[in-house]
Design a protein that fits this description.
Immunoglobulin-like; single chain; 10 strands; 1 helix; three-stranded antiparallel β-sheet; 184 residues; mainly beta; seven-stranded antiparallel β-sheet
Length: 184
């Protein structure tokens, strides 16, 4: 026959034994199921791929600077000046740059005039060229425009201007606004 010996039950013994039991259980759980901090480490994985895409279309930008011939009195010799047109087109994109006749009174095609900005009606003839002194620059594709091919970076085109010898106009400020257009 077995005889069980038990300690007398009192609150202090009960708390100690419960506290001891909790510590023993925590040690057993820590050994069986280790706790980790941070991200979990997994032993299996699967992957999937996805595409990152975009579409590049033929495109161009254009920016032009003006030409200022300064001041003169009697026009006894030709006045020259130049300006730049900056074009940026996508790589391999063919383009043509044209210049319209401008806003000067009587301007048409490649025949251009500057108009007085005051009350007078005088004009000053002006020529715009694709090359220094030759190749009048107009707006008819394939005839008098400047062709090129985009490189993906900015390209600088030079506009060569000339005020030819002519009858001296009335003293005033003379101006024409030219529109540069890129065709692509």
């Amino acid at each position: 026959m077995r005889v069980a010996v038990t300690a007398p039950l009192n609150l202090e013994n009960m708390m100690m034994s419960t506290s001891k039991r909790i510590r023993v259980m925590a040690a057993v759980l820590a050994a069986v199921m280790p706790f980790t901090t941070g991200a979990a480490v997994y032993s299996k994985s699967k992957s999937s791929t996805f595409d990152v895409t975009m579409r590049v279309v033929a495109d161009c930008t254009i920016a032009a600077n003006g030409i200022d011939f300064g001041q003169t009195g009697v026009i006894t010799s030709a006045l020259t000046g130049s300006s730049n047109i900056n074009v940026t087109c996508t790589n391999t994109t063919p383009y043509n740059v044209g210049l319209d006749a401008g806003t000067g009174a009587g301007s048409a095609g490649t025949t251009r005039f500057l108009s007085g900005t005051g009350a007078n009606v005088d004009t000053v003839a002006v020529n715009l060229y694709r090359n220094a002194g030759s190749g009048l620059w107009g707006n008819t594709q394939g005839t008098d425009t400047l062709a090129g091919t985009g490189t993906g970076t900015a390209q600088t085109l030079t506009v060569y201007g000339e005020i030819p010898v002519q009858k001296a106009p009335t003293p005033d400020n003379y101006k024409s606004t030219i529109t540069a257009t890129i065709y692509f």
